[in-house]
Each structure stands twice: as C-alpha cells, then as structure tokens.
Specification:
The chain is 44% helix and 15% strand. The chain is α/β, with parallel strands linked by helices. Helix 3 runs parallel beside helix 4, helix 9 runs parallel beside helix 15 and helix 14 crosses helix 15. The N and C termini lie far apart (57 Å).
Length: 347
C-alpha cells in the first residue's frame, strides 16, 4: 500500500492524517515536538459534526520531527502554515524521492507554486480543505463544519506514481472523499472568499456559529466579500460554487435579518457549536496568523489592478494588532463601524 506523509502535523494535518491512519493507510506524521509528545501520551481522537468518533492508539502512530521521515513517501500532504511553505519545500527537496507526489492542503492561493519552485522535477498539486478543524488538546481534533476535499485533476499522460487518482480509494475509505477538479484556481478563490470570515471570527472571540448568528458580524464579512468580488470581476477571474449559493449571492445572504439567516444557513453550510476559525486558534496560541495569505491576497489583487481594498486592509491591520496583544473582543457593531469607516476613507 502506498505510503503517505503528513508534513506539518497541526490541526488539519493531524485530523486528515488521523482519519487515513484509522482506516488502515500507512501514515507518517512530521511535526513539532509538542505535538509528538501529546500524541505519544494520548493517541489521536477524531470527531466531527456528524457524530463520528475514531481513535488511533499512541503505539500505532508514526511521528517524527525530522523531514527525513518523508524519504519513502509516495504521497506527501503539506499542511504547514503558509509562512512556512518555502522552508517546507527546501527541507523536502533534500529528502523526497523523484517520483513522490506532493499535495498542498493549505490556506491561500500560491502555496502550490511556492512548493513547485522549491521542488523542481516533482509533481506538486494544489488542494483545498473546506472544513474547519479545532484542536481541543490531549490528542483530540474535531471537524466542526462540512465540506469535501478538492484537488487539481491529473493531466493526461502522467506516469502512474504521479497520478493522484490512485490515492482516491484511501481518502474515500477514510470518509474524506477527494474530488479532482479541472477548475482549481476558481476553487481556491471561492474558498478564499469564504475564508474572509476568519479575521472577523478571530476578532469577535466567539465560536463560528455564534458569530455568524449576529447580523453585524455578517455585515463585516459581506463588506470584505463585496470588495473581493468586485476585484475578481474586474480581473476577469472565475469563481465556482462551494456552497448551495453562487459566490456572488453570499454577501446578500450575510445581510439579511437574523431570523431569516438562521433558516438559510442550515441549507448553506453545517457548522456545529464547537467550530472556531484557524485564525482564532492561532491568536489563542500566540502564533502568527495567515492573514497575509487570506485578506492579503485581496489587497495584492487590488494593487495589481491599480485599486485599493480598504476593508480587507483594515482587517489585516486589526489582526496584526491582535497578534501583538491588541483587542480580540470586538462587538459586531464596533467592528462594522471600523470597517465602514475604512471603506469611506475615514479610518
């Protein structure tokens, strides 16, 4: 059976790798000592919003802190934070077999390109994780929202070792079906549009479901999304539907009254009360967030078009302040006023 390596065993890496390992796939985790020690004490306990519960005993977990552990991998899932992508490529370049396949399952748009530059000659595939994973400590990782994994489709004529399609049965058996897409750029931009809620959630200090239940927070998200949608349209880029609603409709739904939103939300995306954004989790742990690879992508697109993105730029500034110990308990009304001020040039 093909060997799988999780490079960057954090919340997403431990959850996906754990699901694969729990159903018999040979998985090697590469990550930090603190995660290694936690899993050595507690093993992996995996749950989701549907009530699933899986356990991988500590003695069955192969975990290393050295990139050398990826040497024999057929498939490497890169799940490091975006800021660490270039370093990951350098370490893997000295380790991986020439025919190893690399799948980027990271936030943002350009991580696969960064990996390709650092891994010449190897096949690197862009992927997307649509759901939220929360780390509750003691080896417990919880998927708090719905969604299916996506990755760029194989191109005709690829040699068998570099075909992602051969790994699909492993993902399906783990309950994580992987869809191969011909429109991966559109998928990544559409996911980014949803991820613009990450800073709003992180600055609210609330679980995702509680935050999204309040209209003023949703209006903050709608401001950031409309700004991004205008720029994407001007650039002539495509989007695709990741929820039952087309991307352009989502800001309109964010703006409806709370009672109506509750009815619509159940049809859009299932989120349980435990779910938090990864950005909230990073702030809670005192880590650098991925704000530059989420809202920063919108600001960079605006710059390429000779435009500005003041709402997303202001969210970046507020999250950077929060990284330094600044405010993380914004009320919806206060944050909305801040972002409206930015949009009007008053902030």
């Amino acid at each position: 059976m093909a060997g799988i390596c999780i490079y960057g065993a954090g919340s997403v890496g431990c959850y996906i790798g754990g699901r694969l390992a729990a159903t018999g796939a040979p998985v090697t985790f590469i990550g930090r000592e603190r995660v290694r020690d936690e899993l050595a004490r507690h093993g992996l306990r995996l749950s989701d919003y549907r009530g699933a519960g899986l356990h991988v005993a500590a003695g069955d977990i192969r975990f290393s802190t050295s990139p050398e552990a990826a040497r024999d991998a057929d498939l490497v899932l890169v799940t490091v934070k975006s800021a660490a992508t270039a370093e990951a490529a350098r370490e893997l370049a000295a380790t991986l077999r020439p025919d190893a396949l690399v799948l980027s399952l990271q936030n943002g748009l350009g991580n696969a390109d960064t990996l390709r530059r650092g891994l010449p000659g190897r096949r690197v595939v862009a992927g997307m994780v649509p759901f939220n994973v929360v780390h509750h400590g003691e080896g417990r990782f919880h998927q708090g929202s719905e969604g299916l994994l996506d990755a760029a489709a194989d191109t005709p004529g690829l040699p068998e070792p570099q075909r992602l399609a051969r790994f699909l049965p492993l993902f399906a058996r783990a309950g994580l079906p992987l869809t191969l897409r011909d429109d991966m750029d559109a998928v990544l931009w559409s996911k980014l549009l949803l991820n613009l809620n990450n800073p709003v959630n992180a600055l609210s200090g609330l679980p995702l479901k509680a935050e999204l239940s309040r209209r003023d927070y949703r209006r903050c998200l709608a401001l950031a999304q409309r700004e991004a949608l205008d720029l994407v349209a001007e650039a002539g880029m495509a989007l695709t539907r990741l929820t039952p609603l087309p991307p352009a409709w989502i800001p309109r739904v964010m703006d409806v009254p709370d009672a109506l939103f509750r009815l619509l939300a159940n049809r859009m995306l299932r989120i349980d009360p435990l779910a938090r954004s990864s950005m909230w989790e990073d702030l809670e742990a005192g880590r650098r967030t991925e704000i530059d690879w989420i809202n920063g992508e919108v600001v960079r697109l605006a710059e390429r078009l000779g435009r500005q993105a003041p709402v997303n730029a202001r969210l970046i500034a507020l999250v950077r302040l929060a990284e330094q110990g600044g405010r993380r308990d914004w009320s919806g009304s206060a944050l909305l006023a801040e972002l409206r001020g930015a949009a009007s040039g008053e902030a």
